[in-house]
Amino acid sequence: MSIAGIIAVSLVALIILFQIKIFWTSMNMKGTKVEQSDFFHTQSPDSPFLLYFYSNRCPSCVAMTPIIDELALEFPNVKKINISESYEMAKSYNIMATPTTVLVKDGKIRKMVPGARNKKNLLSMLELE
Prior knowledge:
46% of the residues lie in helices and 19% in strands. It is α+β, with helices and mostly antiparallel strands. It has two domains: 1-29; 36-125, Glutaredoxin, CATH 3.40.30.10. The protein has a four-stranded mixed sheet, with helices on one face. A hairpin with a 2-residue loop joins β3 and β4. The longest helix is centred in the N-terminal third of the chain and has 24 residues, at 3-26. The protein is elongated and about 70 Å long. The termini are far apart. Residues 25-33 have low confidence and may be disordered.
């Protein structure tokens, strides 16, 4: 391959990387900063709720965010938590990877599921299906 060919391939690669960066920064994945003390005051202690821990840099989180947003509109007991903004809360739940979904019921962790899940799995976690 000639030098001109190498330069052309490099330029194409840079353009693709730039487009990927634009895509990532244009994603609206801003979650509400949730403080643990504030969070528990707003929850009924006997109702189950899901905590969805995510990161803006996680491809699986990007794929799962529309599902969580849809669930959060339907059910107020689904909360989206950005680990960069609510690090202490993520640490208190021993979150080791993103995405991680945590089911809390009666004030206790009932289930912790790392990795991406579909809506049906999440609804079954909430025992709503």
